[in-house]
Amino acid sequence: MPAALEGAAALFAVPPVAFGPDGSGVEQEFARGRALIDAATAVGVEHVVFTGIASTPGRLGGSEGKKRIEDYLRERIRSVTVLRPVRFMSNYLAAPPVGVDGIVHGVHRHIFPPDEPVQIIAVEDIAEFASLAFDRPDRFAGRTLELAGDAPTPAEAVAAISEATGTAVRYEQITHAEAVALNPEIAQVRERWAAGSRWHADIEALRVIHPGLRTLADWLAESGTALLRKRLLETA
């Protein structure tokens, strides 16, 4: 890996989640992140922009694996910017492997109550914040940004998608029993959410940094509607 980074002064790191037979593979995820950081250190990378996942109260870094990588990164690299995005708008396009997210047969299913706001972000805006961090390391080094661009309720989101695409989409919250049957970790997230553990990005403050921060309506107008129409035809 050091050979691949030779000559690089900066690095954008997006460590993938690792899965084992018993669920999330925290040790494997951390080992991958540590190997990348060690390689960056070995070749003298000066600035790293790290993208993890949004945190909730009591769960900084969002997950154990991501938090351990963040901590190790700060120990090894002097100039670090951490981005913690919430759920992606493009998740509506997903082919859900575990029974939540995406839209299947006109139904979007997830753990969230239908009438409570859920923060979301366009992946393009994650790239915008990363670009800002690389352009102005003096401004963004040492900072951690929780990222979101909008906060519609699930019911509002599917209504917007229905109007934009011309195809009726409805929302369905999975029950606790369904979450347990899908994956115990999904059930745990559902329980924490129900107990009030929510994402907390300051969207208005982020918009000061990046005035073009997309709302769901912006994403639909820009690219989401066309992509969703194609996806809805595939899953009708």
Q: Can you summarize this structure?
A:
The chain is of the alpha/beta class and 236 residues long. The protein has helices spanning 2-5, 26-43, 64-76, 123-135, 137-140, 154-165, 176-182, 184-194, 203-209, 216-235, and strands spanning 10-13, 19-20, 23-24, 47-51, 79-85, 87-88, 107-110, 120-121, 144-147, 170-173.
Architecture overview:
By secondary structure, this protein is α/β, with parallel strands linked by helices. It has a domain at 87-121 and 149-197 and 214-236: Rossmann fold (3-Layer(aba) Sandwich), CATH 3.40.50. It contains ten helices and ten strands. The protein has helices at 2-5, 26-43, 64-76, 123-135, 137-140, 154-165, 176-182, 184-194, 203-209, 216-235; strands at 10-13, 19-20, 23-24, 47-51, 79-85, 87-88, 107-110, 120-121, 144-147, 170-173. Strands 1-4-5-9 form a four-stranded parallel beta sheet, sandwiched between helices. A hairpin with a 2-residue loop joins strand 2 (19-20) and strand 3 (23-24). Helix 7 runs antiparallel to helix 8. The N and C termini lie far apart (43 Å).
